[in-house]
Amino acid sequence: MADAESLAQRLIAADFSRRGGVLQVGGLDLATLAETYGTPFFVYDAALMRRAYRALSEAVAGFAEVDYSVKANPRPDIIRIFADEGAGAEIASGAEYAAALAAGVAPERILFAGPGKSDADIERVVSGGIGEIHLENVEEMARVTAAAARHGRRISVAIRVNPGPDAQGGAMRMGGKPSPFGFDEEELDAVVDRIEAESHLCLVGLHLFAGTQGLSASTLLAQWAYGLRLAARVAARIDRPLDTVDLGGGLGIPYFAGDTALDLDAIRAGIPSLKTMIAVEPGLATARIVLEPGRYLTGPAGLYVARVRAVKHSRGQHFAITDGGMHHHLAASGNLGQIVKRDYPVAAVLDEGDAVHRPWSVVGPLCTPLDILARAALLPDLAAGDLIAVLQSGAYALTASPTGFLSHPLPAEILVDEGRATLIER
Question: Which UniProt keywords apply (predicted)?
Fold first, then answer.
Protein backbone atom coordinates (compact mmCIF):
# COMPACT_ATOMS: atom_id res chain seq x y z
CA MET A 1 0.00 0.00 0.00
CA ALA A 2 2.92 2.30 0.59
CA ASP A 3 3.96 1.67 -3.01
CA ALA A 4 0.49 2.69 -4.23
CA GLU A 5 0.73 5.88 -2.21
CA SER A 6 4.19 6.64 -3.50
CA LEU A 7 3.07 6.23 -7.13
CA ALA A 8 0.30 8.79 -6.66
CA GLN A 9 2.71 11.10 -4.87
CA ARG A 10 5.34 10.71 -7.57
CA LEU A 11 2.86 11.48 -10.32
CA ILE A 12 1.56 14.55 -8.51
CA ALA A 13 5.09 15.78 -7.84
CA ALA A 14 6.09 15.26 -11.48
CA ASP A 15 3.04 16.58 -13.29
CA PHE A 16 0.80 18.56 -10.93
CA SER A 17 1.01 20.66 -7.77
CA ARG A 18 -0.83 21.56 -4.58
CA ARG A 19 -1.67 24.98 -3.20
CA GLY A 20 -2.87 25.04 0.39
CA GLY A 21 -3.13 21.26 0.13
CA VAL A 22 -5.54 21.49 -2.85
CA LEU A 23 -4.55 19.54 -5.95
CA GLN A 24 -4.07 21.69 -9.05
CA VAL A 25 -4.04 20.98 -12.77
CA GLY A 26 -2.38 23.50 -15.04
CA GLY A 27 -2.43 26.07 -12.25
CA LEU A 28 -6.18 25.68 -11.58
CA ASP A 29 -7.37 24.01 -8.40
CA LEU A 30 -9.74 21.10 -8.68
CA ALA A 31 -12.02 22.33 -5.91
CA THR A 32 -12.83 25.44 -7.94
CA LEU A 33 -13.38 23.40 -11.09
CA ALA A 34 -15.75 21.15 -9.14
CA GLU A 35 -17.79 24.15 -7.99
CA THR A 36 -17.89 25.54 -11.52
CA TYR A 37 -18.64 22.42 -13.53
CA GLY A 38 -20.09 20.01 -10.98
CA THR A 39 -18.93 16.49 -10.30
CA PRO A 40 -17.89 14.04 -11.48
CA PHE A 41 -15.67 15.37 -14.27
CA PHE A 42 -12.58 14.61 -16.32
CA VAL A 43 -9.91 17.26 -16.63
CA TYR A 44 -7.04 17.21 -19.12
CA ASP A 45 -3.86 19.29 -19.04
CA ALA A 46 -2.89 20.39 -22.57
CA ALA A 47 0.63 21.35 -21.51
CA LEU A 48 1.34 17.83 -20.24
CA MET A 49 0.17 16.34 -23.54
CA ARG A 50 2.44 18.66 -25.51
CA ARG A 51 5.32 17.81 -23.20
CA ALA A 52 4.83 14.07 -23.72
CA TYR A 53 4.59 14.46 -27.49
CA ARG A 54 7.72 16.58 -27.74
CA ALA A 55 9.74 14.32 -25.46
CA LEU A 56 8.88 11.20 -27.46
CA SER A 57 9.43 12.95 -30.79
CA GLU A 58 12.86 14.08 -29.65
CA ALA A 59 13.77 10.60 -28.43
CA VAL A 60 13.03 9.02 -31.84
CA ALA A 61 14.17 11.97 -33.98
CA GLY A 62 15.76 10.92 -37.25
CA PHE A 63 14.10 7.53 -37.09
CA ALA A 64 10.34 7.90 -36.76
CA GLU A 65 7.50 10.39 -36.80
CA VAL A 66 4.92 10.37 -34.02
CA ASP A 67 1.23 10.31 -34.89
CA TYR A 68 -1.68 10.14 -32.45
CA SER A 69 -3.90 7.08 -31.96
CA VAL A 70 -7.33 8.66 -31.69
CA LYS A 71 -8.93 5.73 -29.87
CA ALA A 72 -7.13 6.69 -26.65
CA ASN A 73 -9.15 9.91 -26.37
CA PRO A 74 -11.18 10.93 -29.43
CA ARG A 75 -12.26 14.44 -28.44
CA PRO A 76 -11.41 16.83 -31.31
CA ASP A 77 -9.95 19.31 -28.82
CA ILE A 78 -7.49 16.64 -27.72
CA ILE A 79 -6.65 15.54 -31.28
CA ARG A 80 -6.04 19.18 -32.22
CA ILE A 81 -3.30 19.51 -29.59
CA PHE A 82 -1.26 16.88 -31.41
CA ALA A 83 -2.25 18.03 -34.89
CA ASP A 84 -0.88 21.46 -33.99
CA GLU A 85 2.38 19.72 -33.03
CA GLY A 86 2.55 18.18 -36.49
CA ALA A 87 1.04 14.76 -35.78
CA GLY A 88 -1.11 12.73 -38.09
CA ALA A 89 -3.86 10.48 -36.77
CA GLU A 90 -4.51 6.75 -36.59
CA ILE A 91 -8.23 5.97 -36.53
CA ALA A 92 -10.40 2.90 -36.09
CA SER A 93 -13.87 4.11 -37.18
CA GLY A 94 -15.72 6.60 -39.35
CA ALA A 95 -16.57 8.67 -36.29
CA GLU A 96 -12.89 8.91 -35.40
CA TYR A 97 -12.23 9.94 -39.01
CA ALA A 98 -14.74 12.78 -38.60
CA ALA A 99 -13.17 13.78 -35.28
CA ALA A 100 -9.69 13.89 -36.83
CA LEU A 101 -10.93 16.04 -39.71
CA ALA A 102 -12.73 18.35 -37.26
CA ALA A 103 -9.43 18.72 -35.38
CA GLY A 104 -7.66 19.86 -38.52
CA VAL A 105 -5.84 16.68 -39.51
CA ALA A 106 -5.42 16.51 -43.30
CA PRO A 107 -6.99 13.37 -44.84
CA GLU A 108 -3.64 12.27 -46.26
CA ARG A 109 -2.22 12.22 -42.70
CA ILE A 110 -4.87 9.75 -41.47
CA LEU A 111 -4.28 5.98 -41.23
CA PHE A 112 -7.33 3.71 -40.88
CA ALA A 113 -6.86 0.43 -38.97
CA GLY A 114 -9.28 -1.97 -37.26
CA PRO A 115 -10.38 -5.56 -37.92
CA GLY A 116 -14.06 -4.93 -38.68
CA LYS A 117 -14.38 -1.81 -40.80
CA SER A 118 -17.96 -1.30 -41.97
CA ASP A 119 -18.97 -0.70 -45.56
CA ALA A 120 -20.20 2.76 -44.56
CA ASP A 121 -16.88 3.66 -42.95
CA ILE A 122 -14.88 2.37 -45.91
CA GLU A 123 -17.09 4.38 -48.25
CA ARG A 124 -16.68 7.45 -46.08
CA VAL A 125 -12.89 7.45 -46.10
CA VAL A 126 -12.55 6.44 -49.74
CA SER A 127 -14.84 9.26 -50.85
CA GLY A 128 -13.42 11.81 -48.39
CA GLY A 129 -9.75 10.93 -48.82
CA ILE A 130 -7.43 8.86 -46.67
CA GLY A 131 -3.70 8.42 -46.30
CA GLU A 132 -3.83 4.64 -46.00
CA ILE A 133 -6.28 1.89 -45.20
CA HIS A 134 -4.65 -0.91 -43.24
CA LEU A 135 -6.07 -4.20 -44.47
CA GLU A 136 -6.73 -6.89 -41.89
CA ASN A 137 -8.54 -9.71 -43.71
CA VAL A 138 -9.48 -10.93 -47.19
CA GLU A 139 -13.10 -9.77 -47.03
CA GLU A 140 -11.98 -6.27 -46.12
CA MET A 141 -9.58 -6.26 -49.03
CA ALA A 142 -12.48 -7.04 -51.39
CA ARG A 143 -14.70 -4.31 -49.89
CA VAL A 144 -11.99 -1.66 -50.13
CA THR A 145 -11.35 -2.72 -53.74
CA ALA A 146 -15.04 -2.40 -54.55
CA ALA A 147 -15.30 1.06 -52.97
CA ALA A 148 -12.20 2.24 -54.81
CA ALA A 149 -13.63 0.94 -58.09
CA ARG A 150 -16.92 2.77 -57.53
CA HIS A 151 -15.05 6.03 -57.09
CA GLY A 152 -12.57 5.36 -59.88
CA ARG A 153 -9.65 5.63 -57.47
CA ARG A 154 -6.53 3.71 -56.57
CA ILE A 155 -6.37 3.52 -52.78
CA SER A 156 -3.14 3.31 -50.82
CA VAL A 157 -3.20 0.34 -48.47
CA ALA A 158 -0.90 -1.28 -45.94
CA ILE A 159 -0.91 -4.83 -44.63
CA ARG A 160 -1.47 -5.24 -40.93
CA VAL A 161 0.56 -8.23 -39.81
CA ASN A 162 -0.19 -10.52 -36.89
CA PRO A 163 3.45 -11.29 -36.12
CA GLY A 164 4.96 -14.50 -34.88
CA PRO A 165 5.67 -15.17 -31.20
CA ASP A 166 9.13 -13.58 -31.37
CA ALA A 167 7.49 -10.15 -31.56
CA GLN A 168 5.33 -10.49 -28.45
CA GLY A 169 5.45 -7.96 -25.66
CA GLY A 170 3.49 -5.55 -23.50
CA ALA A 171 0.81 -6.06 -20.92
CA MET A 172 -1.76 -6.91 -23.60
CA ARG A 173 -0.22 -9.03 -26.32
CA MET A 174 -1.71 -8.61 -29.77
CA GLY A 175 0.57 -10.90 -31.78
CA GLY A 176 2.10 -14.35 -31.76
CA LYS A 177 -1.22 -16.17 -31.32
CA PRO A 178 -4.52 -16.65 -33.18
CA SER A 179 -5.94 -13.16 -33.59
CA PRO A 180 -8.66 -11.18 -35.36
CA PHE A 181 -6.07 -8.45 -35.94
CA GLY A 182 -4.24 -8.50 -39.25
CA PHE A 183 -2.92 -11.25 -41.48
CA ASP A 184 -0.79 -13.98 -39.92
CA GLU A 185 2.88 -13.52 -40.70
CA GLU A 186 3.01 -17.00 -42.26
CA GLU A 187 0.68 -15.89 -45.08
CA LEU A 188 2.36 -12.56 -45.73
CA ASP A 189 3.80 -13.39 -49.16
CA ALA A 190 0.46 -14.67 -50.46
CA VAL A 191 -1.34 -11.56 -49.18
CA VAL A 192 1.21 -9.29 -50.84
CA ASP A 193 0.69 -11.07 -54.16
CA ARG A 194 -3.08 -10.84 -53.87
CA ILE A 195 -3.03 -7.10 -53.22
CA GLU A 196 -0.58 -6.54 -56.07
CA ALA A 197 -3.08 -8.22 -58.42
CA GLU A 198 -5.79 -5.64 -57.57
CA SER A 199 -5.65 -2.66 -59.93
CA HIS A 200 -7.54 -0.39 -57.51
CA LEU A 201 -5.17 -1.04 -54.60
CA CYS A 202 -1.66 0.29 -54.19
CA LEU A 203 0.40 -1.49 -51.56
CA VAL A 204 2.51 1.18 -49.88
CA GLY A 205 3.16 -0.01 -46.35
CA LEU A 206 3.16 -2.45 -43.50
CA HIS A 207 1.59 -2.14 -40.04
CA LEU A 208 2.82 -4.16 -37.08
CA PHE A 209 1.32 -3.84 -33.61
CA ALA A 210 2.60 -6.58 -31.33
CA GLY A 211 1.28 -5.40 -27.97
CA THR A 212 0.16 -2.52 -25.82
CA GLN A 213 0.97 -0.98 -22.44
CA GLY A 214 4.66 -1.71 -22.94
CA LEU A 215 6.96 -0.35 -20.24
CA SER A 216 10.16 -2.06 -21.40
CA ALA A 217 12.31 -0.04 -23.80
CA SER A 218 14.23 -3.15 -24.87
CA THR A 219 11.00 -4.96 -25.77
CA LEU A 220 9.72 -2.03 -27.82
CA LEU A 221 13.03 -1.64 -29.64
CA ALA A 222 13.07 -5.36 -30.45
CA GLN A 223 9.52 -5.17 -31.79
CA TRP A 224 10.40 -2.18 -33.96
CA ALA A 225 13.40 -4.03 -35.37
CA TYR A 226 11.15 -7.01 -36.09
CA GLY A 227 8.72 -4.73 -37.93
CA LEU A 228 11.52 -3.26 -40.04
CA ARG A 229 12.63 -6.74 -41.08
CA LEU A 230 9.09 -7.65 -42.12
CA ALA A 231 8.77 -4.37 -44.03
CA ALA A 232 12.01 -5.05 -45.89
CA ARG A 233 10.63 -8.47 -46.83
CA VAL A 234 7.49 -6.88 -48.29
CA ALA A 235 9.50 -4.27 -50.20
CA ALA A 236 11.66 -7.02 -51.70
CA ARG A 237 8.56 -8.98 -52.68
CA ILE A 238 7.02 -6.06 -54.60
CA ASP A 239 10.41 -4.89 -55.87
CA ARG A 240 9.90 -1.26 -54.90
CA PRO A 241 10.39 0.84 -51.77
CA LEU A 242 7.62 1.17 -49.21
CA ASP A 243 6.17 4.58 -48.40
CA THR A 244 5.22 3.82 -44.80
CA VAL A 245 6.14 1.45 -42.00
CA ASP A 246 3.70 1.78 -39.10
CA LEU A 247 5.30 0.25 -36.01
CA GLY A 248 2.17 0.84 -33.92
CA GLY A 249 1.91 2.39 -30.51
CA GLY A 250 2.01 0.28 -27.40
CA LEU A 251 4.01 2.68 -25.24
CA GLY A 252 2.76 2.28 -21.69
CA ILE A 253 2.38 4.43 -18.60
CA PRO A 254 2.62 3.39 -14.91
CA TYR A 255 -0.80 2.57 -13.48
CA PHE A 256 -0.04 0.33 -10.54
CA ALA A 257 2.30 -0.05 -7.58
CA GLY A 258 5.60 -1.39 -8.85
CA ASP A 259 5.18 -0.07 -12.41
CA THR A 260 8.19 1.83 -13.74
CA ALA A 261 7.80 4.54 -16.37
CA LEU A 262 9.10 3.87 -19.87
CA ASP A 263 12.75 4.97 -20.10
CA LEU A 264 12.99 7.39 -23.02
CA ASP A 265 16.76 7.58 -22.60
CA ALA A 266 16.94 3.84 -23.29
CA ILE A 267 14.69 4.32 -26.34
CA ARG A 268 16.97 7.10 -27.56
CA ALA A 269 20.04 4.91 -27.08
CA GLY A 270 18.51 2.18 -29.25
CA ILE A 271 17.60 4.40 -32.19
CA PRO A 272 21.01 4.40 -33.95
CA SER A 273 20.91 0.63 -34.50
CA LEU A 274 17.43 0.92 -36.04
CA LYS A 275 18.63 3.70 -38.33
CA THR A 276 21.48 1.44 -39.41
CA MET A 277 18.97 -1.28 -40.32
CA ILE A 278 17.11 1.18 -42.54
CA ALA A 279 20.28 2.45 -44.18
CA VAL A 280 21.19 -0.98 -45.56
CA GLU A 281 17.68 -1.80 -46.83
CA PRO A 282 16.90 -0.15 -50.20
CA GLY A 283 13.20 -0.88 -49.73
CA LEU A 284 13.08 1.21 -46.55
CA ALA A 285 15.44 4.04 -47.46
CA THR A 286 12.65 6.50 -48.28
CA ALA A 287 9.91 5.05 -46.05
CA ARG A 288 8.18 7.16 -43.43
CA ILE A 289 8.52 5.26 -40.15
CA VAL A 290 5.51 5.94 -37.92
CA LEU A 291 4.81 5.42 -34.25
CA GLU A 292 1.20 6.02 -33.23
CA PRO A 293 0.89 6.01 -29.43
CA GLY A 294 -2.29 7.03 -27.66
CA ARG A 295 -2.28 6.45 -23.90
CA TYR A 296 1.38 7.49 -23.62
CA LEU A 297 0.45 10.97 -24.86
CA THR A 298 -2.88 11.53 -23.09
CA GLY A 299 -3.07 9.16 -20.11
CA PRO A 300 -0.91 11.06 -17.59
CA ALA A 301 -2.54 14.38 -18.49
CA GLY A 302 -6.02 13.35 -17.34
CA LEU A 303 -7.71 13.07 -13.95
CA TYR A 304 -11.15 11.85 -13.02
CA VAL A 305 -12.62 13.80 -10.10
CA ALA A 306 -15.59 12.64 -8.03
CA ARG A 307 -17.24 13.90 -4.85
CA VAL A 308 -17.82 11.76 -1.77
CA ARG A 309 -21.52 11.39 -1.03
CA ALA A 310 -21.21 9.26 2.09
CA VAL A 311 -18.67 7.40 4.18
CA LYS A 312 -19.24 4.23 6.11
CA HIS A 313 -17.35 1.62 8.08
CA SER A 314 -18.29 -1.98 7.48
CA ARG A 315 -16.67 -4.86 9.37
CA GLY A 316 -13.39 -3.05 9.78
CA GLN A 317 -13.24 -1.55 6.28
CA HIS A 318 -13.56 2.16 5.39
CA PHE A 319 -15.75 3.02 2.39
CA ALA A 320 -16.11 6.32 0.55
CA ILE A 321 -19.15 6.31 -1.71
CA THR A 322 -18.79 8.82 -4.55
CA ASP A 323 -20.89 10.21 -7.37
CA GLY A 324 -18.50 8.72 -9.95
CA GLY A 325 -17.68 5.16 -10.82
CA MET A 326 -17.21 2.42 -13.39
CA HIS A 327 -19.90 3.86 -15.68
CA HIS A 328 -17.44 6.69 -16.40
CA HIS A 329 -14.11 4.96 -15.77
CA LEU A 330 -14.35 1.23 -16.36
CA ALA A 331 -10.57 0.85 -16.55
CA ALA A 332 -10.01 2.22 -13.06
CA SER A 333 -12.56 -0.25 -11.69
CA GLY A 334 -10.40 -3.10 -12.97
CA ASN A 335 -13.08 -4.37 -15.34
CA LEU A 336 -11.32 -3.45 -18.60
CA GLY A 337 -8.78 -6.20 -19.16
CA GLN A 338 -7.42 -6.71 -15.63
CA ILE A 339 -7.32 -10.29 -14.40
CA VAL A 340 -5.93 -9.48 -10.96
CA LYS A 341 -7.62 -6.20 -10.07
CA ARG A 342 -5.24 -3.52 -8.87
CA ASP A 343 -5.79 0.12 -7.95
CA TYR A 344 -5.08 3.07 -10.18
CA PRO A 345 -3.29 5.86 -8.28
CA VAL A 346 -5.92 7.78 -6.31
CA ALA A 347 -5.47 10.96 -4.27
CA ALA A 348 -7.60 13.20 -2.10
CA VAL A 349 -8.03 16.60 -3.75
CA LEU A 350 -7.47 18.24 -0.36
CA ASP A 351 -4.51 16.66 1.40
CA GLU A 352 -2.30 18.80 3.60
CA GLY A 353 0.04 15.86 4.11
CA ASP A 354 0.12 15.83 7.90
CA ALA A 355 -2.95 13.68 8.52
CA VAL A 356 -2.88 9.94 9.09
CA HIS A 357 -3.55 8.01 5.88
CA ARG A 358 -5.39 4.72 6.00
CA PRO A 359 -6.71 2.28 3.38
CA TRP A 360 -10.03 3.33 1.83
CA SER A 361 -12.30 1.51 -0.58
CA VAL A 362 -13.54 4.17 -2.99
CA VAL A 363 -16.77 3.01 -4.60
CA GLY A 364 -19.28 4.51 -6.97
CA PRO A 365 -23.06 4.97 -6.82
CA LEU A 366 -24.05 1.96 -8.95
CA CYS A 367 -25.93 -1.04 -7.63
CA THR A 368 -23.20 -3.55 -8.43
CA PRO A 369 -20.19 -4.81 -6.47
CA LEU A 370 -18.09 -4.16 -9.59
CA ASP A 371 -18.34 -0.39 -9.07
CA ILE A 372 -15.05 0.13 -7.26
CA LEU A 373 -12.58 2.90 -8.08
CA ALA A 374 -10.02 1.79 -5.48
CA ARG A 375 -9.84 -1.13 -3.10
CA ALA A 376 -7.18 0.05 -0.66
CA ALA A 377 -6.16 3.61 -1.51
CA LEU A 378 -4.15 5.29 1.23
CA LEU A 379 -6.07 8.49 1.88
CA PRO A 380 -6.64 10.91 4.75
CA ASP A 381 -9.93 10.72 6.63
CA LEU A 382 -12.77 11.50 4.21
CA ALA A 383 -16.22 12.93 4.74
CA ALA A 384 -19.25 13.66 2.59
CA GLY A 385 -18.43 16.56 0.27
CA ASP A 386 -14.73 15.76 -0.09
CA LEU A 387 -13.22 15.23 -3.53
CA ILE A 388 -11.05 12.38 -4.78
CA ALA A 389 -9.03 12.26 -8.00
CA VAL A 390 -8.10 9.19 -10.07
CA LEU A 391 -4.81 9.85 -11.85
CA GLN A 392 -3.62 8.43 -15.20
CA SER A 393 -7.15 8.93 -16.55
CA GLY A 394 -6.60 10.71 -19.85
CA ALA A 395 -6.85 7.59 -22.04
CA TYR A 396 -9.36 4.75 -22.40
CA ALA A 397 -11.59 6.20 -19.74
CA LEU A 398 -14.98 7.72 -20.56
CA THR A 399 -15.29 6.40 -24.12
CA ALA A 400 -14.25 2.93 -22.95
CA SER A 401 -16.95 2.81 -20.25
CA PRO A 402 -20.62 1.71 -20.04
CA THR A 403 -21.97 5.26 -19.75
CA GLY A 404 -25.58 4.17 -20.12
CA PHE A 405 -25.46 1.70 -17.24
CA LEU A 406 -28.10 2.60 -14.64
CA SER A 407 -28.78 5.89 -16.48
CA HIS A 408 -26.56 8.22 -14.48
CA PRO A 409 -25.58 11.56 -16.07
CA LEU A 410 -22.45 11.93 -18.14
CA PRO A 411 -19.52 13.75 -16.53
CA ALA A 412 -18.15 17.04 -17.78
CA GLU A 413 -14.87 17.00 -19.70
CA ILE A 414 -12.62 20.01 -19.18
CA LEU A 415 -9.46 21.02 -21.01
CA VAL A 416 -7.01 23.24 -19.13
CA ASP A 417 -4.62 25.20 -21.30
CA GLU A 418 -2.50 28.22 -20.37
CA GLY A 419 -4.43 28.78 -17.17
CA ARG A 420 -7.87 28.63 -18.81
CA ALA A 421 -10.50 25.91 -18.42
CA THR A 422 -12.79 25.01 -21.33
CA LEU A 423 -15.75 22.63 -21.26
CA ILE A 424 -15.10 20.38 -24.25
CA GLU A 425 -17.79 17.75 -23.84
CA ARG A 426 -20.65 16.89 -21.55
Answer: Decarboxylase, Lyase, Pyridoxal phosphate
